[in-house]
Amino acid sequence: MDFDWTAEQLALRDTVRRFAREVILQRAPEIDETDEFPSDIAKQMGELGLLGLPIPEAYGGVGADFISYVSAIEEISYASAALGVVLAVHTSVGSFPILYFGTEEQKQTYLPRLASGEWIGAFALTEPSAGSDAGGIRTRAVRDGEDYVLNGEKIFITNAAQANLFCVFAVTDPDLGKRGVTAFLVERDTPGLAIGPSEKKMGLHGSSTCPLSFCDVRIPAKNVLGGVGDGFHIAMQLLDGGRIGIAAQAQGIARRALDLSASYVQKREQFGHPLADLQAVQLMLADMATKVEAAHWLIYHAAKMKSEGLPCGKQASMAKLFASDAAMSIASDAVQLHGGYGYIAEYHVEQLMRDAKVTQIYEGTNQIQRIVIARQVLKEAK
Ligand code: CAA
């Protein structure tokens, strides 16, 4: 019994699992080694409908529910956390902004391209001096006739090297603080938008992370997303859903680390026995498996709440906090269980440890998740 998943949800999860194991898993070491975006796999993901899973069929998507989408991120991340984040960012904060807040014209224009994978989506909130303090962004948007003119800098933008469409947050009224932030849909080839080189990261090789600069970027007012001044609320609501996706990404990494470890300790012999015979090893495996199980329930509880349209900011933050901390500790234990072999690339677990780290950082650090959770707990106690 698992939240009474429907036959459709299980079938979709199994299809994605097969694709991830048969197509992606064997390529993961090469993607990590070269740090090149695997465009052929991304194309196949598009053809399979994975890049438009929770987008309604009317806009070219598959029309799957949120739980199925989250399980797809987990399965893809089991094979490649880099492709997991490509999918999560493209959908949760690249496509959902339009689905949830877009005009009918914006939906018709952009969603079919995003859902098919012809276009990749990205989310541009973070700036050099505004990371955790998302309300402190300085990118400025000034109205000029029928347009807005954007100037400023963004950093750490996932998918930027491939993205065709950016959901960009900018200040339209500096006197209003967070209520003076507006979201814009900005196409890649807009004059004045420059996409910098991808950062050299500790992990998630193959997924791009670039700075953006806006120099007099002219955006038609019809590309405002939601209302003028609604940008901060939009960003926060998107991140509520996005954080469940990152939790699922972390879970994929954790499950792979556990599977590799459980297999390795039964093959590797020391002191005349497989490592698995040692209680010290069994205790570690038991803790790893318990964390995976606990993360599963937190993630799919939050996903179920979201799919039912219930407020789930607290649950999303709990899932992201727990699953990412669990993934980091499980990946680290996997390296430990592999001993010296764990520290070399061939055994894959060192990559999982590098990939896991960022899940504690992006879409809100785990310190920010605790703030979100605590604020809600205090609110509920009033
Ligand atoms: N949903 C809707 N509205 C929300 C909200 C939510 N979840 N959270 C806050 N708000 C609203 C508040 O109600 C408030 O509204 P009013 O002004 O109308 O009263 C407004 O937003 C401001 O709220 P706060 O005063 O609570 O804001 P704050 O400045 O204290 O910040 C924060 C709150 C939780 C710390 C927020 O800044 C935050 O989440 N920071 C982390 C940023 C982050 O996650 N960045 C990720 C970057 S994207 C990324 O990583 C993607 C990637 O590439 C992988």
Automatic annotation (TrEMBL):
Record has S-adenosyl-L-methionine as a keyword: no
Domain Acyl-CoA dehydrogenase/oxidase C-terminal: residue ranges: 229-378
Keywords for this protein: FAD, Flavoprotein, Oxidoreductase
Superkingdom assignment: Bacteria
SUPFAM superfamilies: Acyl-CoA dehydrogenase C-terminal domain-like, Acyl-CoA dehydrogenase NM domain-like
Transmembrane regions: none
Acyl-CoA oxidase/dehydrogenase middle domain boundaries: 122-217
Residues annotated as domain Acyl-CoA dehydrogenase/oxidase N-terminal: 6-118
Cofactors named for this entry: FAD
Family listed: Belongs to the acyl-CoA dehydrogenase family.
Protein known as: Acyl-CoA dehydrogenase
Organismal lineage: Bacteria, Bacillati, Bacillota, Bacilli, Bacillales
